[in-house]
Amino acid sequence: MATKIDAYQCTECGWTTNRWVGRCGECQTWGSVAERGAPKLRSVSVSAPTERAVPIAQVDVHEADRRLTGIGELDRVLGGGLVPGAVVLLAGEPGVGKSTLLLEVASRWARGGQTTLYVTGEESAAQVRLRAGRTRALADQLYLAAETDLGTLLGHVEQVDPSLLVVDSVQTIGTADADGSPGGVSQVREVTAALVRVAKRRGMAVVIVGHVTKEGSIAGPRLLEHLVDVVLAFEGDRHSGFRMVRATKNRFGPSDEVGCFEMGDAGIVEVPDPSGLFTSQASEPIPGTCVTVTMEGTRPMLAEVQALVAAVPNETPPRRVTHGVDGSRVAMILAVLQRKAHFPLSRRDVYVSTVGGARIGDPAADLAMAIAVASATVDANYHKRVIALGEVGLAGDLRRVPGLERRVGEAARLGFELAVVPANNRDPHSRLPDMHGLKVVEVATIAEAIGALGLSRAGRSDPDAR
């Protein structure tokens, strides 16, 4: 006997319920729950399996050997290359370079002697051919098709028999077997499920391009991210050529790695050593600047923080302007500088920014921001190339940061002379060794860090600073 259970479904995330509600219980979206089609059955008929289950030790592990894409930064994010039968979802904002990157991947895959099929639903074949000529992505084993029908796409797969399939994008592919128009929740779910099935059956790697919403999340049902094996986020500022590919889900490797690229006139190129992109090229330290080392996955990356402090008239409220850093975090650091290090900042405009469009969310950059503001306040610089690492507490103390040895090692490799880091509170007799000409100074408070750099010459005329 058929009964209706979970007869209502959210069109945004796929959450189901047995009664109508005005707000989705999963994604909290209003007005997205609608009645869905046929009722479910209480029982399911038993069918004979096509393949017999085998002990796990007898499964041929070599069938899942990784294959390099030819782009080292992408292979790094994937965990060492593409696994046959894996389905990868690459999502990013319009114009960030998703199609350019995947066309380069398809070209290098084909140059390695493996057949590649690139299916575009957003452009014509001639338009993709023009881009391939501009970026030098032409290859004999690279096949191109412009299709928006899922059945025709699968027909191309049967004819070409590729080892890599690129679909650009999943929101443009539709099928008559699902309700709605291409890009809708039902269509995206059915198209992705079909691609996953054919990928597993043929042992073919599939890379799908996905759109994002205005909030930055992947468009379509949340089920889309569960269906695929790997989810990659392609990030970048359209006013800057720097791009980052970040893994948010990876069934075959780490999910915290990032790959660095740079977009230019000739296409997209990988950046194996991106530390120099976010630091200025000044030969001597400049007042109001400080360099820190952030961690992107397991990769240490240098970032420079710049600060400007200017006095304001008494009748004008001071301004706090930030770019590339969290404004609330900067406000907290300014309060700690004023109360614990006696810097008169209550009647000063403070501007804090990063170099090269970098976005810093690592708490380890707190000390660098504090030193940059202190240096700008007294208009004095330090005579060595300095990096600063440490999370600033409300009591003015410095807390240890993860991966400290790796961060300091990266600074030593790039020729820095002095590293100001938090003291090792767990073992007062344990100290980081100096390395490659880099002297390591361990301090316990923000006042000690400023004093170690000779920046504690701020006046105390401001009563609020006491």
Automatic annotation (TrEMBL):
Location of the RecA family profile domain: 63-212
Classification via PROSITE patterns: RECA_2
Stated name of the protein: DNA repair protein RadA
Family to which the UniProt record says this protein belongs: Belongs to the RecA family. RadA subfamily.
Pfam families membership: AAA_25, ChlI, Zn_ribbon_LapB
Motif stretch (RadA KNRFG motif): 249-253
Job description of the protein: DNA-dependent ATPase involved in processing of recombination intermediates, plays a role in repairing DNA breaks. Stimulates the branch migration of RecA-mediated strand transfer reactions, allowing the 3' invading strand to extend heteroduplex DNA faster. Binds ssDNA in the presence of ADP but not other nucleotides, has ATPase activity that is stimulated by ssDNA and various branched DNA structures, but inhibited by SSB. Does not have RecA's homology-searching function. Plays a role in repairing double-strand DNA breaks, probably involving stabilizing or processing branched DNA or blocked replication forks.
Annotated organism of origin: Brooklawnia cerclae
Binding residues for ATP: 92-99
